[in-house]
Hints:
By secondary structure, the chain is an alpha+beta fold. The longest helix has 6 residues. The two termini are about 30 Å apart. The protein has one domain. A hairpin with a 4-residue loop joins β3 and β4. Strands 1, 2, 5 and 6 form a 4-stranded mixed sheet that branches.
Amino acid sequence: xxxxxxxxxxxxxxxxxxxxxxxxxxxxxxxxxxxxxxxxxxxxxxxxxxxxxxxxxxxxxxxxxxxxxxxxxxxxxxxxxxxxxxxxxxxxxxxxxxxxxxxxxxxxxxxxxxxxxxxxxxxxxxxxxxxxxxxxxxxxxxxxxxxxxx
Length: 150
């Protein structure tokens, strides 16, 4: 992995980050891999406990990240260019969303804490409480809506 510039997230615009810096912004919470319900009439998004089939519920990481779109064609490829259109869909704690909105990272973010487990210790990851999507019919997803807290 290439070296990261010190505190790059505070000085480098999202569009100017290296691939390594961009990927390092991911805190590993796994919330973006939760299935969501988007209401056409309001545009609001509810998160569910139902996880993408590729999410590892313990590590909170995609099991096939580099080739995920082969398995999940509609998986979002987040880029600086696409962020303005999809930021509303990201968790309120997401570093990409926070930086896009001009807000700082949380103290528990691994880039701040230096510990990749800090996101789990802070209780903001999905570790241990997701349900695989193949176990719930899509018509029943509204029974699994969660309160996605900031």
